[in-house]
């Protein structure tokens, strides 16, 4: 008769469970392409499949349903310029201890240089950046109404 102690049973159980979970995690990581412990994701590579790929490539370069529409390159450049100018203004205003009204006037003048930004999806992000930048650099808080007035 085979005699197994509780200690031997528990050790064997934990070792087998560890091997099982390691195998499941490795298979999951391999299937999804995501790393287990940080690092970069493996690029998804799909090879074209006959006619279906040819038909898809002939269609216009419309964005996929699950992805947001791409922002045009000139708009991105303009947004970056706007952000850089706002940050430089906020840094200078913080050093000069400008009043809230002076800050609002300066930001409004900067936004007036970029009239195309008001009607884009980037407006909300830029507004949030204005609030955070002015709070950090100048210790001035703007509420939603004040930020909305800056765009007018």
TrEMBL record:
The chain crosses the membrane at residues 6-28. Residues 61-74 have a biased composition (Low complexity). Keywords: Membrane, Transmembrane, Transmembrane helix. Residues 37-74 are annotated as: Disordered. This is Uncharacterized protein. The lineage of its organism: Bacteria, Pseudomonadati, Bacteroidota, Chitinophagia, Chitinophagales.
């Amino acid at each position: 008769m085979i005699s197994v102690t509780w200690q031997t049973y528990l050790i064997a159980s934990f070792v087998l469970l560890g091997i099982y979970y390691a195998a499941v995690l490795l298979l999951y990581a391999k299937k999804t392409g995501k790393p287990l412990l940080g690092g970069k994701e493996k690029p998804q590579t799909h090879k074209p499949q006959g006619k279906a790929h040819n038909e898809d490539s002939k269609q216009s370069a419309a964005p996929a349903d699950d992805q947001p529409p791409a922002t045009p390159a000139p708009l991105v450049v303009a947004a970056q310029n706007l952000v850089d100018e706002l940050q430089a203004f906020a840094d200078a205003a913080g050093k000069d201890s400008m009043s809230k009204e002076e800050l609002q006037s300066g930001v409004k003048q900067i936004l007036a240089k970029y009239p195309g930004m008001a009607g884009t999806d980037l407006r909300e992000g830029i507004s949030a950046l204005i609030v955070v930048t002015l709070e950090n650099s100048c210790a001035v808080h703007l509420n939603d109404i004040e930020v909305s007035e800056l765009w007018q």
